[in-house]
């Protein structure tokens, strides 16, 4: 099945998806950030909750963040790239040394997680980022307890690279680095 992704420049990209959803990717703006910082994930996913502060909002509206909008213009998720997608403990482990990979991070509206939309969402994110940044190599880091996300990433061709530890919100957490070449 074909669907269309619209990006800011007015360009449409045809991609194969499993569902009919077509998402629009735009630079993440203040109005999007003000919504996203109030998303609350249930435990154990609370690690992904953001702080509803001005500093956090300002962080989200940096140029390396994109909002993902549904056909009605509602925010269903976001993605970020580069340094914004990295976990601090990964530097010490040498995870980010290979500059051939684009680091990517994603977030999906909590009410939409676990409903089978992740594969469509993330595959369209990867297509958008590949076209925008001209790369076919991606790297991501995911908390090891997040088995749902790890299954999703593996189903899209990501492979496990390295497990490491990092502090998150003043608590130690275990992370898995994964890579993909399209």
From TrEMBL:
Keyword Transferase in record: yes
Taxonomy, superkingdom: Bacteria
Residue span, N-acetyltransferase domain: 36-182
Alphabetical list of InterPro entries matching this protein: Acyl_CoA_acyltransferase, GNAT_dom
Matches recorded under Gene3D superfamilies: 3.40.630.30
GO molecular function, one term: acyltransferase activity, transferring groups other than amino-acyl groups
Database matches in Pfam families: Acetyltransf_1 (PF00583)
Keywords associated with the record: Transferase
Protein name (record): N-acetyltransferase
Organism expressing this protein natively: Alteribacter keqinensis
């Amino acid at each position: 099945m074909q669907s269309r992704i619209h990006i800011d420049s007015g360009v449409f990209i045809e991609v194969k998806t499993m569902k009919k959803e077509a998402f629009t990717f735009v630079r993440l703006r203040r109005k999007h950030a003000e919504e996203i910082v109030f998303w609350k994930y249930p435990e154990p996913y609370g690690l992904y909750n953001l702080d509803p502060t001005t500093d956090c909002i300002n962080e989200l509206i940096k140029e390396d963040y994109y909002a993902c909008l549904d056909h009605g213009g509602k925010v269903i998720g976001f993605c970020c790239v580069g340094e914004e997608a990295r976990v601090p403990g990964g530097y010490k482990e040498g995870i980010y040394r290979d500059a051939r990979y684009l680091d990517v991070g994603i977030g999906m509206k909590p009410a939409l997680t676990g409903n089978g939309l992740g594969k469509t969402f993330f595959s369209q994110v990867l297509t958008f980022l590949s076209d925008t940044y001209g790369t076919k190599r991606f790297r991501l880091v995911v908390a090891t307890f997040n088995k749902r996300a790890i299954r999703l990433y593996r189903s899209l061709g990501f492979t496990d690279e390295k497990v490491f530890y990092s502090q998150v919100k003043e608590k130690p957490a275990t992370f898995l680095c994964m890579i993909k070449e399209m």
